[in-house]
Amino acid sequence: MSNMTPISAAAGMPAEPLRRTVRSEIARKMRRHWQLYLLILLPLLYFILFKYVPILGVQIAFKDLSAKAGIWGSPWVGFKHFEAFFNHPNFWLLIKNTLFLSLYTLAVGFPAPIILALMINELRNGMFKRTVQMVTYAPYFISTVVMVSMILLFLAPRIGVIDHIRTALGFDSVNFIGEPSMFKTIFVLSDVWQYMGYSAIIYIAALAGVNPQLYEASKLDGASRLQKIIHIDLPSIMPIMVLLLVLNMGQLLNIGFEKVYLLQNPLNTSASEIISTYVYKVGLVQANYSFSAAVGLFNSLINLLLILLANFGARRATGSGLF
Amino acid sequence: MSDKVLLTFIYIVLIIILAAVLYPLIYIVSSSLSSPQAVVSGRVWLFPVELSLKGYTAVLSNPRIWSGYSNSIFYMCVGTLISVFLTFALAYPLSKKTFYGRSTIMYLIIVTMIFSGGLIPYYLTVKSLGMIDTRWALLLPQAIAVWQVFIAKTFFQESIPDELNEAAEMDGCSDLRFLWSIVLPLSKPVVAVLALMYAVTAWNAYFDALIFLKNVNLYPLQLILREILIQNSVDNSMMVDVRTMEARQGMKDLLKFSLIVVSSLPVLIIYPFVQKHFVKGVMIGSLKG
Question: Which of B24, B93, B264 is opposite residue A40, by nearest beta carbon?
Fold first, then answer.
């Protein structure tokens, strides 16, 4: 199709028949590859059913959902549920907990794999390098349920290993997981433990692709290892860092429901209640669909705004964004 | 800072990281092989104390764990088959430059990555499809991961030359025939990557089961684990010959350690074999997707 246009235009054809030829060319192509269209039908159906129908379903955030009338027949109520959420006594607490938890995760969890990758890149290929990589990837495969139960077992007062160490050193026994002030740190550090190695894979791959001539040139110029890391390694992984940062920004309010929910207990909710756990409890446990759909939509919109902002910022700063 | 100092520093930091990652894993395996008394009194530091298999016998004698295990194996196998098929069926046409409409479809897919309806509309959709409390609820709604589509698409674009397709077409080979007898045999590495990623996700997932399933007989292992490990509900049937409070507590903890090992076993067994593929998959998807 693309190589069609200039030839026919050069032949001096008028515009109207040209458009018709293009269209018939498309139809011809589609007919010839009908099997591919057949193949893609099921996956497309999947996206419509499980991704786009729910997007249409966000209208219940502006309605009072009644079981009898269904999603389409229920009466419109405008921004009632949004107003209720903004005036909710826990509104600011939820926003604060969600934002703080995700910014904290980003601040620690984003640089950690980069530093790990830069360090692994300095090792010569051999047993030690392979061991470090293999061991640090492994925790990624642990399920969230098991991860949380490990945290609970290790931090349990009196019986956990951390508490044994503390009492052996003469400190008091502490119920870490019931302490609201400790919650976010526990969450972030265990996240780093679990995902640091896995997230480093991308950077290690990028570092392996750096042009060796750059290293040779820097050696001739007498650059030290540290200078090499700062002036060659870091700039060469910059595009991926920007890309991942933009993606992470878009997930700021989507911080993992699964782990937070499992780590929650009545003692720490003041620090651990975030938007997604709140939506789950109010919406699905208490069946307050419309109100919690409004909370969820608010969350999705803020995320969308953040990813667009981050993308804009990345474009301004480095000249390349995600889209 | 001289190069030697820097390198020594790097080695020291990496050894500390290595120990910090390994220690909890070793501690869990060692505890699971110790006696209940040793676990509760905190005598386990690194190696098993008073070697015993009591934890494992208690875990294996529980019918709920068996039911969860077999359900999870079912969800993992069938779900992975469905997911790999759908991903393949989507990624292959999208990898063809001659496929009219590919950019529109790509755009529609990327939109779902950055905006979603949220939990409640998702739940109501699945509900209206009549999938609540059926096995379908864990097989279909999360069947395609967009990231995996990118991995597969990049693979096709890089490893299946256009000339091959053109030559086959010239010889009168249909698209599906080409896909079946040329592309599929060439795609073993990417199928391995996709299957592995989907299988691990399916094995570890618990959220969809939490919201969609009420029938205990359909529960995947992760939900059963949640009850025992996190909500602390341990059947008395698992408490064989324990009388004192302390012995009870010891048995409860021991059980958890053994359960963690048993439930992570399938993934940990395949991990060393597939690690290379896995790393490759992450790389294709991220660098060129």
Answer: B93
> Does one domain contain both B216 and B123?
yes
Q: Does B253 touch chain A (CB under 8 A)?
A: yes
B118 & B24 share domain: no
Angstrom distance (rounded) from CA A223 to CA A202: 26
What residue in B sits closest to A258 (Cα-Cα)? B207
Instruction: Say whether both B80 and B51 belong to one domain.
Output: no
Q: Find chain B residues with C-beta within 8 A of A53's C-beta.
A: 121, 125
Nearest to B200 among A123, A132, A141 (CB): A141
C-alpha triplet A232, A236, A239: angle, nearest 5°: 150
- The answer to whether residue A39 scores a pLDDT higher than 70 is yes
CA distance A247 to B114: 9
CATH 1.10.3720.10 residue ranges in chain A?
Answer: 80-318
CB contact B108 to A (< 8 Å): yes
Q: Is residue B276 part of a domain?
A: no
pLDDT band at A2 (very low <50, low <70, confident <90, very high): very low
B227 lies in some domain? no
Is B206's CB within 8 Å of A283's CB?
Answer: no
> CB-based contacts of A237: which residues, under 8 Å, 6+ apart?
A114, A117, A203, A206, A207
Q: Which domain range does residue B216 map to?
A: 63-220
Find the closest chain A residue to B267 by CA distance.
A141
The answer to whether residue B58 is domain-embedded is yes
Is it the case that residue B97 has pLDDT exceeding 70? yes
Judged by a CB distance cut-off of 8 A, whether residue B5 touches chain A is no
Report the alpha-carbon distance of residue B233 to residue A2 in Å, rounded: 65
Shared-domain flag, residues B125 and B198: yes
DSSP character at residue B183 = I
CATH 3.40.50.300 assigned to domain A80-318? The reply is: no
Characterise A278 by phi-psi region: left (phi > 0), alpha (psi -120 to 50), beta (else).
alpha
Beta carbons of B170 and B151 less than 8 angstroms apart: no
Entry pTM? 0.85
pLDDT 10s digits, B218-256: 999 999 988 888 877 666 555 655 556 667 777 888 888
Residues A148-159 pLDDT 10s: 999 988 888 777
Tokens of A179: 């302490």
Same domain (yes/no): B117, B203: yes
Query: Quick check: B51 contacting A, CB < 8 Å?
Result: no
Q: Does B50 touch chain A (CB under 8 A)?
A: no
Q: Please check whether residues B84 and B204 belong to one and the same domain.
A: yes
